[in-house]
Amino acid sequence: MRLPVLVFDIETLTDLKSGAHLYGLDLPQDDLEQALAKLRRQESGMDFQRLALHEIVCISGLWIDENGVMKLFSFSREHYTETEILQKFLSIFDKRHPTLVSWNGSQFDLPVILFRAMYHGLSAPSLFDQGEIDTQKRYNNYQNRYHNRHVDLMDVMAMFNGRHFQKLDDVAHLLGYPGKRGISGYFVPEYVNTQQWLKLTSYCEGDVLNTWLIFLRWALLKGQISLQDHRLWIQASIHYLQGQAQQHEFLNVWRETSQRTEFTQADFSSTPD
């Protein structure tokens, strides 16, 4: 497993201003939101907006450095504008070149980040260069789905076949991890509108943590880490989360879900309460 690793996830809302501009709508905010949802259902049969009409309200990540030291973080609209959130996230790649890990990141998170960075006039060659600047990134770059600079777990676990895509929540549960714990992205607008920022960041960070745990299992499958290494990473993750008050609920649920599969039953066996 190549360190450093950055596991990330984003949360978004519909960009009402861009939607109104795109469709030529002049409506109050509540009516505009309903109109855009109706138009989207007519276009695609679903409420989920096209990628270009998402605005980012939170980016969360788990950084694991070369020494295995972990840091969980979130940039949200509580403290930053969307431009500032993007600048903070993109600046990571100016300094370091981590293994990027996501769930559906190549289909959703990175394209949305690309659109929003362009919308705000930002430059991010360290993330989006495909060899035009650094020739070493001609093939192994963050956009190439068949290399491991960016590991989109949903994609690689489906063997790059869209018919086999699975939900993060389902895979996490099947492997003995907490999953989304009864929460979904449908709550994000409510969290933002009512300024429940802690709930927003906890939800986004929960997705990051589930993705990290699945990535460890993927690395074990691929032979990138040994079984002993996997156990050590699990213990290190538990130890780290015990010091993160915001993630105690995640940890408690994990303790319960770990008992549902034979492989994960020992996750907490050598960890003090």
Automatic annotation (TrEMBL):
Any one GO MF annotation of this record: nucleic acid binding
Pfam families: DNA_pol_B_exo2
Residues annotated as domain Predicted 3'-5' exonuclease PolB-like: 47-254
Positions in coiled-coil regions: none
Superkingdom of origin organism: Bacteria
Protein name, as recorded: Predicted 3'-5' exonuclease PolB-like domain-containing protein
Source organism per UniProt: Acinetobacter guillouiae NIPH 991
